[in-house]
UniProtKB/TrEMBL annotation:
Keywords: Glycosyltransferase, Membrane, Transferase, Transmembrane, Transmembrane helix. PANTHER family: ALPHA-1,2 MANNOSYLTRANSFERASE KTR1. GO terms for cellular component: Golgi apparatus; membrane. Gene3D superfamilies: Spore Coat Polysaccharide Biosynthesis Protein SpsA, Chain A. InterPro entries: Glyco_trans_15, Nucleotide-diphossugar_trans. GO terms for molecular function: alpha-1,2-mannosyltransferase activity. GO terms for biological process: cell wall mannoprotein biosynthetic process; protein N-linked glycosylation; protein O-linked glycosylation. Residues 45-100 are annotated as: Disordered. This is Glycosyl transferase. The chain crosses the membrane at residues 7-25. Belongs to the glycosyltransferase 15 family. It comes from the Eukaryota.
Length: 428
């Protein structure tokens, strides 16, 4: 019995060896396969050209002439000239910027305020920022939360960011009612705003968020290590490549604050913001800059606010400016006056009014080349050539810049800047 089993095992091994020998000897050179594929296309060029009605009987460019097969070692990047001449795919190789940019880095970080439940929306934003910019620069990313970040949030975001990631919990007293706030009065305001259907008008957490972004994020211990920040919110999009270091640009050009979209604020959310601002100006006239952008925020030399503001869900700015005496005095005035809770002051008008009044106008920059979306507005750079050169995928008909509710044209006028060529055609 044992002898028979051994005999069968020998036969099986011999059979297996035969199969292996046959397999090795029958595998042909891959170059032969490539050659025969070319021959196959050639032999079918008649049927392909039959669909073209512009050139009767003309073969597809390149398919007619005798050409050597594509050498394997060149890979897909070097196309035979026959294919380069066509206007079909594959397109001519269009160089991507280098994987990592050379040169020194600035002392800068991305910063995001988020809840654990925002993880997938912020993941989307990070991927956009990394693909279009940060994969080349590897800047850090600070995440801040009024609760502890959970493991999933940390794992997902750490995997996506090319720089270091840091996770901070916000101290309680930066995310709660200051002692001087009458909470019953604040609750009544929220009820009224709910009735009037003011957006986020009945939300307590939204108010803490706006107050935090107005006066605290730049003082978080994790932020103290940095001089520059780029704020990123969940579910934003970037539509064009950014092939230079935006932080370095800010530093070299003496910029302190920047924006991509500007618009008018809902009046119901900030009825007395300007009164508070005027109180600060009266107390600290020395903190109001000469050559500021008052004209951007007021049409009557400072008597009233025209509600123009930079949309702060995107910001690249200087943290030392926000941590400086003037901005801190301004924030303290607003905080004491209580409008974060008795109204619904947003951090966007707060940062904007501060930038407009305490910075020289040349210190505020419009990043035309950072194409951006945050629901519901898009900034898509004006000019076809620019969009092609920077591999933009935004639809220019969705550009908000020249819309009647945008304040960007006013920014150009205040700064004597020439409007970009073609802006009229892209006015919607
Ligand atoms: N940790 C924390 N983050 C918050 C809270 N509320 C908002 N945020 C974050 O604060 C930023 C602004 O909040 P959003 O809800 O985006 O406010 P918005 O941009 O005015 O409104 P949307 O149109 O909803 O985007 C985002 O980065 C949010 O993730 C909160 O209660 N806790
Ligand atoms: Mg948002």
């Amino acid at each position: 019995m044992a002898g028979t089993q051994r005999y069968i095992r020998y036969i099986l091994i011999a059979f297996l060896c035969l199969i292996i020998v046959y397999f090795i000897s029958s595998t042909s050179d891959p170059r032969d396969q490539l050659q025969s594929a070319t021959d196959y296309i050639k032999s079918h060029s008649g049927s392909l050209t039959a669909h073209r009605d512009d050139e009767d009987e003309a073969p597809l460019p390149g398919l007619d002439d005798e050409r050597p097969p594509i050498p394997l070692e060149t890979g897909a990047r070097t196309l035979p000239s026959a294919l380069e001449d066509t206007d079909t795919t594959p397109n001519k190789p269009n160089e991507l910027p280098p994987a990592v940019a050379s040169g020194e880095r600035m002392n800068a970080t991305f910063v995001t305020l988020a809840r654990n439940s925002d993880v997938w929306e912020i993941a989307e934003s990070i991927r956009q920022v990394e693909d279009r910019f940060n994969r080349k620069y590897n800047y850090d990313w600070v995440f801040l939360n009024d609760n502890e970040f959970d493991e999933q949030f940390k794992r997902v975001t750490t995997a996506l960011v090319s720089g270091k990631t840091k996770y901070g919990t916000i101290p309680k007293d930066h995310w709660s009612y200051p002692e001087w706030i009458d909470q019953d009065k604040a609750a009544k305001v929220r009820d009224e705003m709910r009735e009037k259907k003011v957006i986020y008008g009945d939300s307590v957490s939204y108010r803490h968020m706006c107050r935090y972004e107005s006066g605290f994020f730049f003082r978080h211990p994790l932020m103290l290590d940095y001089e520059w920040y780029w704020r990123v919110e969940p579910s934003i999009k970037l539509f064009c490549d950014i092939n230079y270091d935006t932080f370095k640009f800010m530093a070299e050009n003496k910029k302190k604050y920047s924006f991509v979209i500007s618009l008018y604020e809902y009046v119901e959310t900030i009825p007395t913001l300007w009164d508070s601002t005027k109180r600060w100006m009266e107390k600290h006239p020395d903190q109001v800059a000469e050559g500021n952008s008052m004209k951007f925020v007021s049409d009557d030399g400072g008597k009233t606010y025209n509600h123009c503001h930079f949309w702060s869900n995107f910001e690249i700015g200087n943290l030392n400016w926000l941590r400086g005496q003037a901005y801190m005095d301004y924030f303290d005035q607003l905080d004491k006056d209580g409008g974060f809770f008795y109204e619904r002051w947003g951090d966007a008008p707060v940062h904007s009014v501060a930038a407009a009044l305490m910075l020289k106008k040349e210190e505020i920059h419009f990043f035309n080349d950072i194409s951006y979306y945050h629901v519901p507005f898009t900034h898509c750079p004006t000019g076809d050539d620019f969009r092609m050169d920077h591999k933009c995928h935004c639809n220019p008909s969705e550009n908000f810049d020249w819309n009647g509710y945008s304040c960007t044209k006013r920014f150009f006028e205040v700064n004597d800047m020439e409007l970009p060529k073609g802006w009229q055609q892209e006015q919607h």
